[in-house]
């Protein structure tokens, strides 16, 4: 972990590991090589270490799978070419500042030094993009153009995030003055200029070489699918399942819409009416934040010691309005010592002032308890059971996002979404996630679209109409979502496919218990599964089902 923190200071800050909060990662080809070499050395060391118990055996399997995939991605040339609208250095170098402490003068001095280090990181990033392009590894023009716009926004004087961030500096209740104020202003200006230089490079060097093709092809997609799931799946079978799951969820939506407003009411009509009912609306971000916190606190209070074992430090979750305006809702985990609690963030788009509680209650459960906060917080808490890498550094999207969708359905089963409106909100999200399986695999693998969606090969135009028909969101947000799917292959399906694999694992564990003549303890299953931490879903399945016959006993 010490080496990981030094090689990747952003990850160190994310995990709450001290000592590198004023640094930025080396994003040059040499930096990527250094991290890949460290991963390969760790894999070799783990392979030569004997496991003394089941925990060690799972750790060995998880590290071999995760670190081995990092090395595989590097060898395939995937890590130096990353450029997309949501999860690439363009965004990550800015977003790390959201996690930094801002209470003291020392905190702001650290921020100033990190801002000053940002230009070198972006310079290394440009070097890697150039090297990848020289080998023919170029991004889609759609992603380049969107990232140019993002970089230009961060480069804009006065309105840039960096300017507004340092303008809000209030260490210990007072504005910074003297050398610190000058350092912050200089750091913000340097960061702005660096993003401006990135925008120029993207526009003049990369855009002319970028490909108009969004699809990444089967070979690249299979690699990223394994990375995001920690499992090998049959992509063609999963695509067919996605179509079936979409039809099933849509039928369930139609039944709930009829319960709300009578036979013949479509889900779209029901949701439009719900958005006009005053008792289901919030009218400013202060009300939104208070509602999020109350709903989260209630879930923790009522689920703890009944449906889930929730350690005391994990019973604290902060709900916040994010400093950005992208429209996303996300979770950031606690620091290793829980001095920084887990946080649920809502990035409210500019001009949006009305929020529908019926649509978002399920999101609170997804991001909070029993979703991400329980999952990540409980893993972070298990210092006596898991090593630091297992607790903090190992994160698999299909495990984490799959669990969060599993948690949404579970809350419906537990009666927390018995209001048909709240149930419809949950189904709205489930329908989108099912549609993403179809869209993502369909476009990137060049599969044939159903006749209802135009037939022929899936492409961005067909995907757009398909997405609009299966998601009730603002079109500007949907356009961003489509760009996300097209530029981040296999990540979006990991939610719904991960949920499927979690449900299959639960059912297999139930069958295993019943085959032994035992009753199935769901609470014990959840605790045992979460105690394993966020490992690849194939590793998780082996850890749960491959143990001795006492595996699922309390």
Write the layout of secondary structure elements.
Layout: H1 2-7, H2 9-15, H3 29-47, H4 54-75, H5 89-95, H6 105-134, H7 141-155, H8 161-167, H9 178-206, H10 218-229, H11 235-261, H12 267-274, E1 281-282, H13 285-303, E2 317-321, E3 329-332, E4 342-346, E5 355-356, H14 357-367, H15 372-381, H16 388-393, H17 397-413, H18 420-444, H19 460-470, H20 475-487, H21 493-515, H22 522-531, H23 537-545
Parallel strand pairs: 2-4
Antiparallel strand pairs: 1-5, 3-4
Helix pairs in contact: 3-4, 4-10, 6-9, 7-9, 8-9, 11-12, 11-18, 13-14, 14-17, 14-18, 17-21, 18-19, 18-21, 19-20, 21-23
Care to count the β-strands? 5
| Strand residues, percent | under 5%
Query: How large is the radius of gyration?
Result: 23 Å
Which structural class do the helices and strands define?
mainly alpha
How many structural domains does the protein architecture include? 2
Main-sheet strand order equals 2-4-3
SSE order: HHHHHHHHHHHHEHEEEEHHHHHHHHHH
Biggest sheet statistics: 3 strands, mixed
Q: What multimeric state do the chains show?
A: single chain
* CA-CA gap between termini: 32 Å
Low-confidence stretches: 548-554
Kindly report the average pLDDT value: 93
- Total DSSP helices: 23
Q: Which outline best applies?
A: globular
Question: What proportion of the residues is helical, as a percent range?
Answer: 55-70%
Question: Can you give a write-up of this model?
Answer:
With 554 residues, the protein is mainly α. The chain folds into two domains: 2-27 and 80-212, no CATH class; 228-487, no CATH class. Helices cover 62% and strands 3% of the residues. It is built from 23 helices and five strands. A three-stranded mixed β-sheet has the order 2-4-3. Strands 1-5 form a two-stranded antiparallel sheet. The two termini are 32 Å apart. Mean pLDDT is 93; it is low at 548-554.
